[in-house]
Write a structure and sequence with these properties.
This protein is α+β, with helices and mostly antiparallel strands. It contains two helices and two strands; from the N terminus they run E-H-H-E.
Amino acid sequence: MVFVANLIIADDVEALHNSLTQTARDSLRESVKELESILSSGGRIVFLGTPQYHDSLYHEMRNRGYLCRVWPARYPTGKQ
């Protein structure tokens, strides 16, 4: 049986427990690449998450062809 997906939403793939060490971050990067192997032709992968470290997986996503959008949790008021 072969599984394929049209849309993969990867929510918080990077967390403290799987990105605490460089070895763990490298393993996570390899695991995320496997998502592409189950993606159908013309499908897409969406990553949602918060970077945990300066060398976060999310920071390199632009170099891998992903668009990046940032939504702040808070906006300054007009007075600020």
